[in-house]
Amino acid sequence: MGCIFCEIINKRVPAKIIHEDEFVIAFEDINPQAPVHTLVIPKKHISTNLDIKREDNGLLGHMFQVANKITKDKGIAERGFRLVMNCNPESGQAVFHIHLHILGGRHMHWPPG
Ligand code: AMP
Ligand code: ZN
Fold first, then answer.
1. Which of 12, 26, 85, 111 gives 20 to 30 Å between its CA and that of 97?
2. What is the pTM assigned to this prediction?
């Protein structure tokens, strides 16, 4: 249905996938905003954070566990990193399939832009 991230899950669009299991995949962002910029997405299509159901709670927890493993593998866990999920247009959400941004490898500013 024209979802670019579902196309990546189905391997119809290429991506640099660094983790895959039954429930999620993680791949490198095509337009990185930091030395580490990886996206963790559920294989289940969920359009926005507002569409997360109670039955998805385990899935969301798993996304965070996978994100933690990636930060350790990439050596940024102890230095620090930022996790971002944008929701709806004013946040800047551009792809309407939820994704957890992992950003790190440089100092992060606050407040965010
Ligand atoms: P958001 O603005 O939160 O919706 O973030 C969408 C992210 O997906 C952006 O950081 C894009 O650079 C990234 N992105 C879009 N298309 C692709 C793609 N085909 N492969 C990898 N990352 C992508
Ligand atoms: Zn999708």
1. 111
2. 0.98
